[in-house]
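Recap from last week: sequence in, structure out.
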Amino acid sequence: MNTSFEFFPPKTERGKENLINLIKRLSHFSPEYFSCTYGAAGSTRKGTLDTCVSIKNLGQKACPHVSGIGSSKGVIKEILNEFKDHGFTKIVALRGDPPSGIGGFGDFPYALDLIKFIKREQKSFTIEVAAYPEVHPDAESENTDFENFLNKVDAGADGAITQFFFEEDLYFKFMEKCEKEKVTIPIIPGIMPIHDFEALVRMAKNCSANVPMWLKEGMQKYSNDEDRMMYGVEVITKLCQKLLRFGAPGIHFFTVNKEEPTSSIIKNLATK
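Predicted structure tokens:
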């Protein structure tokens, strides 16, 4: 099974040490790569770069994120040169979330603008983009959201990672639409293991990802954290199994910088 793991840049020295140890442990699963997120308007530019350098120094493939919103062409060009100088060949190109108080959208109001710029400036990068089985919260409609995805593919996206979801039919239907439009790039399901259910519900609301009622009711049956964690592992394991049987080319795990429950889910998949 092809896997990849996503982190966010740690803010403290202790966090950096913990992440190094986590990378070492997750490396035993032989992932395709480790990616690192990029804060609004470049707020984690150095942290993203430093994290990816640490990943590379551990002998693993690093894939930095970059978001265009709030940035100038000059800044993005600098970042791309930094990535190239450190030997990174794959990047995740996103619009990004506008930070509070930002004075404008910069030179890249949409991910499409960023992808086109990268393709002009640094043709050597493999570019991953975001896909939304459920409609992006800022999209006008489902149709315009999908058209935007097709435009990103046409602009040169080499692959896509989906927003997280909890019902496999969402991915199946999205892939059916892609097949009709003859989209051939690999589209990897982005999977969010259930670390903290209350925090997950808040996160899902912010990105318009549906948390189904059956999952909420299932979580309410358990009163202690360990049982809730075990139930979450079972739910996500079954989801991944269905996706892989369908033909998903791999699984991208949003780890939130924690080993569990991601590690338990992968071990389950290896034995079932």
